[in-house]
Design a protein that fits this description.
Layout lengths: L2 E3 L2 E5 L13 E5 L2 E4 L5 E12 L6 E15 L4 E12 L6 E12 L7 E10 L7 E9 L2
Antiparallel strand pairs: 1-4, 2-3, 3-5, 4-5, 5-6, 6-7, 7-8, 8-9, 9-10
Length: 143
Amino acid sequence: TAFSLALQPFMSLPTGGKAIGAGDWGAGLTIPASLELPDDLQLGISPTIEAAVDEDGKGHHLADSLVTALTVPIGETGLSGTAELWGQRDDDPSGHVSQYSLDIVAAWQPKQLANLQLDIGTYLGLNRNTPDVELLGGVAIRF
């Protein structure tokens, strides 16, 4: 079994106006990890902790999230399916918000186009603070 772990620090700077920007800097750390399981299953976990900008733009507060995912290949077609549980807690002084979802995603990476991946899926909200259903689609190209 193979295991991988990374540290991904990030920072955001206030470049947008008040209508689209947070008004101050923010910073955090994501620690993605993955473990290969028997039968080509893959387990992933990605905790994040962040000094998020307050809603009023005049300070910072703690925000954290956790994604836990299980991915399984579907045959030899380059298709895979992922089920993940996502949770986020934002401790903004204007009001604490927790959100949770169950996310189902299918990804296809054709063997003849190894640098291309197509994704489609849905996020299903698990509490009243999370949208009931969100649909997603994406294209990733590796350079």
